[in-house]
Specification:
With 236 residues, this protein is α/β, with parallel strands linked by helices. The chain folds into two domains: 2-156, SPOUT methyltransferase, trefoil knot domain (Alpha/beta knot), CATH 3.40.1280.10; 173-233, tRNA(m1g37)methyltransferase, domain 2 (Trp Operon Repressor, Chain A). The protein is 37% helix and 17% strand. The chain has helices spanning 10-17, 20-27, 64-79, 99-105, 123-129, 145-156, 204-222, 224-233, and strands spanning 2-7, 32-37, 50-51, 61-62, 86-96, 110-115, 132-135, 189-190, 193-194. It has a five-stranded parallel beta sheet with strand order 2-1-6-5-7, with helices on both faces. The protein has a two-stranded antiparallel ribbon with strand order 3-4. The chain has a two-stranded antiparallel ribbon with strand order 8-9. Helix 1 packs parallel to helix 6 (145-156) and helix 3 packs parallel to helix 5 (123-129). The chain is elongated. Bound molecules: ligand 21W. Ligand 21W is lined by residues 90-92, 116, 119-120, 135-137, 139-144, 147.
Length: 236
């Protein structure tokens, strides 16, 4: 899986994504991440990439040309491989990201992320290059960089081999609309609190039943919206 990022802060993104599991996936060659600095494509002598909005208003707007040229540059590398990738604009106005979207994106060979900063991007270049608009939720951030990192992290762990555990990433939280059961490790007793007896019993059927019960219990308590769906799916 090849991730391409158009951003004004490539170092921030490479640093974040080179850490932990995504970093190991890069080392193993399972994913690669190329962050292109939009500023490298400005033709202005002072390196400006933004300007005042026509019609007035607060803040600055990112100009079309450097983004257009940065996108063209990235496409040159990709088209050599013969694929036409989706261009995802990270924006508060996009589809709200979830696991289903992560699974859909994980099927692609290349993904291009466009990250805005300041108040936004000149609409004309968005019309020309963007295929998808994605938000990560209804709160206001300072730019699209952290949201793109969130999406890349979620998609990366669905790439075969990225997680080294035996159970595939598919059988996890948000499957069947249930939250996960509580987990415990050594020691058996911590400050007077014991690990639930059933987990020490070695009785696999009972353990499975206990975990399902706990999953249902905490979904009802913490995520009543998911619990509703679970009940409907199970005719309860
Ligand atoms: C915040 C951009 C506010 C634009 C027209 C007139 C990407 C994000 C972002 C940001 C505005 C995501 C305006 C959840 C987010 C992002 C920066 C408002 C003002 N437009 N997901 N005036 N939350 N945020 N523009 O903030 O770029 S995905």
């Amino acid at each position: 899986m090849h991730f391409h990022i158009l951003t004004l802060f490539p170092e921030m993104m490479m640093q974040g994504l080179s850490t932990s599991i995504t970093g190991r996936a890069m080392d193993k060659g399972l994913i690669d991440i190329e962050a292109t600095n939009i500023r490298d494509f400005t033709k202005e002598k002072h390196g400006h990439v933004d300007d005042y909005p026509y019609g007035g208003g607060a803040g600055m707007v990112m100009q079309a040309e450097p983004i257009y040229l940065a996108h063209q540059h990235v496409m040159e590398g990709i088209e050599a491989r013969g694929s036409k990738p989706r261009v995802i604009y990270m924006t508060p106005q996009g589809r709200v990201f979830n696991q289903e979207i992560a699974e859909e994106l994980a099927k692609e060979e290349d993904l291009i992320f466009l990250c805005g900063h300041y108040e936004g991007i000149d609409e004309r270049v968005l019309d020309m290059i963007v295929t998808d608009n994605i938000s990560i939720g209804d709160y206001v951030l300072t730019g699209g960089e952290l949201p793109a990192m969130v999406v890349i992290d979620a998609v990366s762990r669905l790439v075969p081999g990225v997680l080294n555990n035996d159970v595939s990433a598919e059988f996890e939280s948000f499957n069947d609309n249930l939250l996960e059961y509580p987990q415990y490790t050594r020691p058996e007793e911590f400050m007077g609190r014991k690990v639930p007896e059933v987990l020490l019993s070695g009785h696999h059927k009972n353990i499975e039943a206990w975990r399902l019960e706990k999953s249902i219990e905490r979904t009802k308590e913490r995520r009543p919206d998911l619990y509703e769906k679970y009940c409907k799916d199970h005719n309860k």
